[in-house]
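Handout, page 2. Input:
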Amino acid sequence: MKKNYQVFIGIDVSKGKLDYCIISDPFSNQHQFGIVANTEKGIKQLMTLIKKKYKSDETIVCLENTGVYSMLLCYWAQHFKIDYWVVPALEIKKAKGISRGKNDKADSKDIASYCIESLIKITGQKDFRKDIQLLITSHSTHITTKIDFENTVVLYESGNEIISHYILDGFSDSALGKKQIKYLNKYLDAVNANLFYSRKIILVEGISEKLLVPVFFKIITTHSTEKSSCCVINVNGLAFSYFLEIVKNGFFQKCLVLTDSDASTKTRDRADSLATKYGNVSQIKIGITQQTTFEKDLISFNKVGEGRDILLKVLKDVRPNSGTSYCESLRAKAIVVEEYFALIEEYKSEFAYSLMLNLEEDSKGFIVPTYISDGINFLA
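Output:
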């Protein structure tokens, strides 16, 4: 569905805060500025303000790609069903008439202005001749999501060849095929469409994995997912199979699925069912937790040693009172998986975010679970 955006929100993302600028009238000099903490609470506060004052289908949030620091914002924008556009920092810096780096408030306005100018260039012409075929080649994920997937072709390199693949090739006309196409049209947003611009793909279940897997990737390979042209897609606990069908049907890029052993009860998406269905596809690897959940695997592999020290530091950060009491009662003993998990079960995103920051500072001695390390080595 073509969107007619009327409200443009530029956000300058840093580790601790989000500076934002709201432009509700592109032809006016009136702007609304604000700052919220770059935490779940702060981001929810901003999203609630946006939903209350503006129509979601007329609003777009634009931000620079700042890696892990922008992940929570992207997650909650998607959760609140607010469109967002993640733009490479270099692209904004090169944009005509924009001088970055003055201060965070000015940068947020520049990002909002960049969003307006870019979308006008993309969608400004309203009347098109019917006898002209328009071919667009682009590396813009935002443009990709505005084009009907039936008319979208992905070009990728395989050896010394350039291969072309229609995204919907291989999907049947059956009820299941139509359901899969409907799902992809709905959930391949500007972030998830990044898979078409990547050489390697990692599919994960939720925000915790989305935050931490890039850190684990760097621990194992010594370089970032961005440098490896690897994207991490959060399917939000939904069907992996819809994405895997794209790979299976001809978009032959390596794809890793990281799933819990207690995943969805739907037969199609059970971990063992995924492994059976896609196990013979050479480009796909299904990684399954040894414990029932992602968090429990992290705890189990780091019950003792330096990994234990990191987990206890995170627990004190996430649960200052009960976490500190647990650490004191534990003394020098190994972490008990179920006891630790019970303390973070309702704070999974906070746990993942704190662990991510701690590992980025120092990951020495932290053990990445086998199903993740094996999967990343498969991609590498």
